[in-house]
């Protein structure tokens, strides 16, 4: 056990939350302590809407997937054509894990211990050797809140999930619907366990201060990505002018096609914090490829042109997304241990797109697979550093304002939980 495992110089979690300095990184115990890991599960992951999958991963009735959120095992299943259900993956007999495979397809949900059998609606259908007075209606699976938003699937294990998520869904769904992600198919999925706390993974994603570590990604992003007008250094002024021209052209295209594009940013001003915006990409401006051209010949939805830049969506606490004309990439983060985090990346393409004909899988995945691996190394370095007794919180640069917004959102959630 390290000195930062539960306290820092005798301070409790209450003390550390109360004294957090705005504009500075969090103290080491937030990232290394088992106490904070448990607190994060209770105050954040067990209380908020979490992105966990896409509709495309459960296309047919009976398709299911399971996932672990701290001590919670969740079962997500397609009950009907447009009907997703989510349950605690716990048999109502003696508590056995109901399904132990990560994903698959079933007719009914059958417990492997004593064969209690449930429909995909969670109702108990069969329980062997029960007395005549046994009422199966009292023993259905315990439900978990689930909602699909434009093809993105969210769950919440809280009895009363954040009510403002309905407002957020109404704001972001018009941006997503033109891409028809509900009808897309999964081209690839990669799971990566990073050697760092989940907050370091999220913070790393919330800034481009470090983006010179991402040569593949920087082929598509403008050199000034992440900068405000006031932050653009003189040597990048010409690149910024190029961005402004591309941005003006795209805004005209968005208006002509009726695609919403304006920045809406409420990262730390509501419980279900988010940020969404359409923005230009460099070079051909179509996709994340070395020359910026589309990685898939079949475009998503009914989009008439490939040159649409990218739709960027961030959602607290555990997800970000890039949706383009030709494909979409989703990212979900789940804590495994204080210094371990699971990152799942999923690539979606048009349902009729054929690998080797319409897209090359290596080209489709190249940029974000490389970027994820680079980020994993950076997160591991950060985790090693915050565990040192010499570490103390440092100040954020102006371009790291979204990191501050994330930390402010997170600390606010802890305060509400600890002082409730």
UniProtKB/TrEMBL annotation:
Keywords: 2Fe-2S, Iron, Iron-sulfur, Metal-binding, Oxidoreductase. Its cofactor is Fe cation. SUPFAM superfamilies: Bet v1-like, ISP domain. Residues 49-155 form the Rieske domain. Pfam families: Rieske, Ring_hydroxyl_A. It comes from the Bacteria. This is SRPBCC family protein. It comes from Streptomyces aureus.
């Amino acid at each position: 056990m390290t000195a930062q495992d539960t306290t820092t110089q005798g301070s409790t979690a209450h003390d550390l939350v109360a004294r957090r300095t705005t504009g500075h990184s969090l103290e080491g115990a937030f990232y290394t302590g088992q106490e904070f890991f448990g607190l994060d599960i209770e105050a954040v992951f067990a209380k908020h809407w979490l992105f966990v999958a896409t509709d495309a991963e459960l296309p047919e009735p009976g398709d299911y997937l399971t996932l672990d959120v701290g001590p919670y095992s969740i079962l997500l299943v397609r009950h009907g054509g447009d009907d997703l259900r989510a349950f605690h993956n716990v048999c109502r007999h003696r508590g056995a894990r109901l399904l132990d495979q990560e994903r698959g397809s079933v007719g009914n949900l059958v417990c492997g211990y004593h064969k209690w059998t449930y429909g995909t609606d969670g109702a108990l259908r069969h329980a062997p050797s029960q007395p005549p007075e046994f009422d199966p209606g009292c023993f259905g699976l315990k439900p978990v809140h689930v909602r699909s938003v434009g093809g993105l699937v969210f769950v919440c294990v809280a009895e009363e999930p954040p009510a403002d998520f309905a407002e957020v869904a109404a704001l972001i769904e018009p941006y997503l619907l033109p891409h028809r992600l509900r009808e897309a198919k999964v081209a690839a999925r990669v799971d990566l366990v990073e050697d760092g706390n989940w907050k370091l993974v999220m913070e790393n994603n919330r800034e481009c201060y470090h983006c010179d570590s991402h040569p593949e990604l920087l082929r598509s992003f403008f050199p000034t990505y992440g900068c405000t007008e006031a932050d653009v250094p003189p040597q990048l002024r010409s690149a910024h002018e190029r961005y402004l021209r591309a941005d003006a052209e795209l805004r005209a295209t968005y208006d002509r096609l009726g695609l919403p594009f304006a920045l809406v940013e409420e990262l730390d001003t509501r419980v279900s914090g988010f940020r969404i915006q359409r923005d230009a990409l460099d070079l051909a401006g179509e996709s994340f490829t070395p020359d910026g051209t589309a990685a898939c010949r079949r475009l998503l939805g009914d989009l008439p042109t490939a040159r649409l830049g990218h739709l960027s969506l961030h959602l607290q606490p555990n997800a970000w997304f890039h949706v383009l004309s030709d494909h979409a990439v989703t990212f979900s983060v789940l804590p495994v241990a204080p210094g371990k985090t699971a990152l799942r990346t999923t690539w979606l393409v048009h349902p009729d797109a054929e690998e080797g004909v319409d897209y090359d899988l290596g080209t489709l995945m190249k940029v974000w697979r490389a970027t994820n691996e680079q980020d994993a190394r950076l997160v591991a370095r950060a985790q090693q550093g915050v565990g040192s007794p010499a570490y103390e919180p440092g100040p954020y640069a102006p371009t790291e304002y979204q990191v501050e917004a994330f930390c402010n959102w997170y600390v606010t959630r802890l305060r509400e939980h600890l002082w409730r």
